[in-house]
């Protein structure tokens, strides 16, 4: 099975062939994968080197000139390091683009904290107008990327990860949580690659499970429509990132929200993804215990 | 706001700019910085840039990006003089309902290609604009960006200039207005930073219109071009 990042490279390479408005801007990450596309479209596949402020600024400048830029590197260097460029060069200039990250929160634990970006979605929450896709499978990544690139001049963030669910779900790209399980007594929202662990965890719990491959805009209507005021969010990035959005959706009702995700405290551990999921309480056994305790079951 | 039409517009000259700037009174604190850019901006808009209020939306227009957004009074005066908006807008400078802030906003100022204020954003945006035009086969439009010598302290500029030379962005032009305000100076000169990265460079008296014009129009095949416009040191 290819990874989401492999699928991103293949899909975007085809989009370069199909749409003359598409340009790819890189900063020395994934450049090998794009080498064939770069030979075909040397002026629409640009590698600026290890220069992330320029990566964002140049991408936004291409948008000012009328292109649809797809800007890519690891999440920590795409959103966190050049955050003011994201805020001003895209947001304040009011131009669109597609930011596609790799490496997520714990994709390369042996690489340590410098290559982890659990705060990327929370940071984008401080800005206006960003759509955030968190695909849970390479097939979903392809569908969401295609939707994002074709999404007019919108500002879209696509967060790719090595963590993947066994099966792809149908995703529309225009937002909307989908119910993958109907139950009683509570709603669990699983974001992107957290779905398999969530489904394992709640196998013996009678709860509704909503799947979110697009988290911004947050589908508050689906959360309300699920009909329960006990809500658990399980996100593959900073715990609590969507808690405020869930609270807003249920503002007129007495309700409880538990936000699960990556802890803020640095683990200062290497190892592998399974060990980090367990350390953050995001493996199926930990989730079973935490969700069950919250729901009193 | 209203934008005067070409027919109704009285032609303005360089000698009108002082009066136009005088219309923008109030608490603005960047007066000296504003005037440091006045001559370079005037020569550029009067004799070099191929953009008018009528062509400001054309794909093939020349682009001017004011990166040094501090002290935009000279910029607004030149835009008004060239008819991008009427001079009646100028007295409102910095007020709640005015399109003219103490840093420009491209969504509010007719003719402004970018909003600026935070330093070090214009050159990367200009690099991207030049890349985007080239990628669309638009080889003719020139991209200009104006920076200050102190603004060059921002590392983002060095990311951009180090890339633009090797990338051969020959439609990219930078103006660095040098009023010796960088805290640690630029030992060895500003132009040398660009030249080392493969740019064509000229350093001229930033008050001498003929020297500015000659430097702005000097050929620079295959390379981006920088003009360092030296003016009296900031007091």
Automatic annotation (TrEMBL), chain A:
<dbReference type="Pfam" id="PF02779">
    <property type="entry name" value="Transket_pyr"/>
</dbReference>
<protein>
    <submittedName>
        <fullName>Transketolase</fullName>
    </submittedName>
</protein>
<dbReference type="GO" id="GO:0000287">
    <property type="term" value="F:magnesium ion binding"/>
</dbReference>
<feature type="domain" description="Transketolase-like pyrimidine-binding">
    <location>
        <begin position="2"/>
        <end position="167"/>
    </location>
</feature>
<dbReference type="InterPro" id="IPR005475">
    <property type="entry name" value="Transketolase-like_Pyr-bd"/>
</dbReference>
<dbReference type="InterPro" id="IPR051157">
    <property type="entry name" value="PDH/Transketolase"/>
</dbReference>
<dbReference type="InterPro" id="IPR009014">
    <property type="entry name" value="Transketo_C/PFOR_II"/>
</dbReference>
<dbReference type="InterPro" id="IPR029061">
    <property type="entry name" value="THDP-binding"/>
</dbReference>
């Amino acid at each position: 099975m290819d990874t989401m990042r492999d699928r991103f490279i293949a899909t975007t390479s085809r989009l370069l062939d199909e749409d003359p408005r598409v340009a790819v801007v890189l900063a020395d990450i994934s450049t090998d994968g794009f080498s064939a596309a770069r030979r075909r479209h040397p002026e629409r596949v640009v590698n600026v080197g290890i220069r992330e402020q320029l990566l964002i600024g140049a991408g936004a400048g291409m948008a000012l000139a009328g292109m649809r830029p797809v800007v890519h590197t690891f999440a920590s260097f795409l959103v966190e390091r050049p955050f003011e460029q994201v805020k001003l060069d895209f947001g304040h200039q009011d131009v669109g683009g597609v930011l596609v990250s790799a490496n997520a929160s714990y994709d390369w634990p042996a690489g340590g904290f410098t290559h982890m970006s659990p705060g990327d979605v929370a940071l984008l929450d401080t800005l206006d107008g960003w759509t955030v896709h968190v695909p849970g499978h390479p097939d979903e990544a392809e569908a969401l990327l295609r939707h994002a690139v074709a999404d007019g001049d919108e500002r879209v963030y696509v967060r790719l990860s090595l963590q993947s669910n066994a099966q792809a779900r149908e995703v529309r790209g225009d937002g909307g949580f989908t119910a993958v399980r109907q139950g009683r007594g509570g709603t669990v929202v699983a974001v992107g690659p957290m779905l398999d662990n969530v489904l394992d965890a709640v196998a013996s719990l009678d709860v509704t499970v909503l799947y979110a491959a697009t988290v911004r805009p947050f589908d508050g209507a689906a959360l309300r429509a699920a009909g329960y005021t006990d809500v658990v969010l399980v996100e593959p990035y900073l715990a609590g990132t969507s808690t405020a959005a869930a609270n807003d959706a249920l503002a007129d009702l007495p309700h409880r929200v538990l936000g699960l995700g990556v802890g803020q405290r640095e683990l200062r551990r290497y190892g592998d993804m399974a060990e980090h999921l367990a350390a953050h309480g995001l493996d199926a056994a930990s989730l079973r215990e935490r969700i069950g305790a919250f729901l009193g079951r | 706001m209203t934008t005067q039409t070409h027919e109704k517009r009285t032609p303005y000259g360089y000698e009108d700019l002082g009066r136009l700037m005088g219309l923008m009174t109030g608490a603005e604190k960047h007066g000296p910085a504003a005037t440091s850019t006045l001559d370079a901006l005037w020569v550029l808009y009067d004799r070099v840039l191929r953009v008018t209020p009528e062509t400001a939306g054309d794909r093939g227009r020349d682009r001017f990006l004011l990166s040094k957004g501090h002290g935009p009074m000279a910029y607004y005066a030149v835009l008004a003089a060239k008819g991008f908006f009427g001079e009646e807008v100028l007295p409102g400078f910095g007020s709640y309902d005015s399109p003219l802030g103490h840093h420009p906003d491209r969504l509010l100022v007719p003719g402004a290609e970018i909003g600026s204020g935070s330093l070090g954003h214009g050159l990367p945006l200009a690099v991207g604009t030049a890349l985007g035009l080239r990628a669309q086969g638009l080889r003719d439009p020139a991209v200009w960006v104006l920076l200050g010598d102190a603004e060059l302290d921002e590392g983002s500029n060095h990311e951009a200039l180090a890339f633009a030379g090797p990338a051969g962005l020959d439609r990219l032009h930078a103006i660095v207005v040098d009023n010796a305000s960088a805290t640690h100076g630029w030992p060895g000169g500003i132009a040398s930073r660009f030249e080392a990265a493969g740019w064509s460079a000229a350093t001229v008296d930033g008050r001498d219109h003929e020297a500015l014009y000659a430097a702005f129009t000097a050929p620079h095949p295959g390379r981006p071009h920088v003009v360092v416009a030296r003016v009296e040191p900031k007091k």
